[in-house]
Amino acid sequence: MPYPLMFRLRQTLHGPVVSDVPAAVEAELSKLRMEGRVKPGDTIAITCGSRQIANYAVIIKAVVDHCKRLKANPFLVPAMGGHGGGTAEGQREALQTLGITEDAMGAEIRSSMETEIIGQLPGGVPVKCDKHALKANHTIVVNRVNLHPMLNGEVQSGLLNMIAFGLGNREGAQIYHRAIENCFFEDLGRGIYKIMLKKANILAGLMIVESGRHTTARVEAALPEDFVEKERTMLHYARGLFPRLPFKFIDILLVDEIGPIFGCLGADLNVIGRKNVLHAAADAEFPQIRTIVYRDLNPNSQGNAIGVGHAEFVRSRLLRKADVNATRLDSLAVGMPAIAAAPIDFETDREILDAALGLTGLPEKARLVWIRDTSSVLEFECSEPYLREVQHWKDLSAISSLHTLDFDDQGNLRDFVIDDPSGSKEQL
Questions:
Q1: What is the distance, to the nearest Å, from the Cα of residue 310 to the centroid of all Cα atoms in its chain?
Q2: Would you give the distance in Å from CA 398 to the centre of its chain?
Q3: Are strands 288-294 and 313-315 parallel, antiparallel or unpaired?
């Protein structure tokens, strides 16, 4: 099979960088003047999710420190729906992979799948909340505001999402995923928010926006009554910074790793498309990708291969690392059993590429893109047909000459290193 020639591409991604993250968090929380509502000795639950967020542990530690300055007793609550295998211990382990431990944060982690029903939405949908958060005197909701892999509209990933799917734990997440089959999450999320506002002792929220370079671009605190309006503004801001693949049409996309840390469906579908259809992009959705290949499962995924069903091909090693029960549980929780279905698998990259290129008209002219994961689109590999195109774009630059795909003796692609402008090197 003739393979296309490749070159390395670097994409310039814009956005501000918060130089002192702990100071920024302290300044934002101080603006809310919570000392008037928090008594010495009060308990404060701080929500923690399962996503890979820039400076996440630093931010959570800064929130803990602020609570201690108020002479309160903060503790951490895993608020990640059915992730972490849908178990209390699994969610504690998920936080550990993000650097959020009791020793590092200086606060206890109280993890449980138990919830209480605190209200009901029109239509009979029960509103559930984590029992530890409910027992606390106050709760501070912390989350990144960003485009969501499944949701559309003015409410996507953010505080309202954390209040619903996060604090609802596994049972709540399952209920709400079923409910949004018949309504917009924007309406559901606001309904849950109104009940939580009355019943769940919410003290404040902290919103985080990242740049495309995975740096903290902005943090903003909000009083509970201002969550909706401030989150809408932050989502608009985040949309402008969101990193994307620069091409509209791709024949084959190689993705080195998937896993829940990259998105609730294992990958960010805002990057690779297929947000509304399983094996094709919607008419107005870009990029339009003919064939997606997932090569491996991120080691911090605890075997959860949710989203594997979005791909046409996978390396066999990914399936061997998958925990069938964890994958099945999470896929059922989001109401999408098909995304747990195993695609065609091959042992080697060469076998996969031979099959995928065989689906194209001219294999040596195929439009091939190779990325590390959907959170890493700063630097990646592209095939020769893109070379002329990128020469006319000011934010794209070819940083290597054309070269052949480098296979080892077993027929697998050799790792290569991303030179991060910050000075670190990532292996891909």
A1: 16
A2: 28
A3: parallel
Distance of CA 81 to the CA centre of its chain: 13
Q: Which two tokens stand for residue 165?
A: 């799917």
Q: Is 66 helix (H, G, I), strand (E, B) or coil?
A: helix
Q: How far apart are CA 370 and CA 380, in angstroms?
A: 6
Q: What is the pTM of this model?
A: 0.82
Amino acid, single-letter form, for residue 285: E
* SS3 label, residue 216: strand
Lookup result for tokens 């939580």: 196
What φ, ψ does residue 131 adopt, rounded to 5°?
Answer: -65, -35
Kindly report whether the peptide bond that precedes residue 260 is cis, defined as omega within 30 degrees of 0: no
Report pLDDT digits (tens) over 330-364: 888 877 899 999 999 999 999 999 999 999 988 99
The DSSP string of 325-352 is HHHHHHHHHTT-GGGGS--EEESSHHHH
Cβ atoms of 275 and 149 closer than 8 Å: yes
Q: C-alpha distances in angstroms, 186 versus 102, 191, 231, 243, 272?
A: 34, 9, 12, 23, 23
Max CA separation in the chain (angstroms): 71
Cα–Cα separations (whole angstroms), residue 175 to 121, 123, 169, 179, 186:
12, 13, 10, 6, 15
Beta carbons within 10 angstroms of residue 337's beta carbon:
11
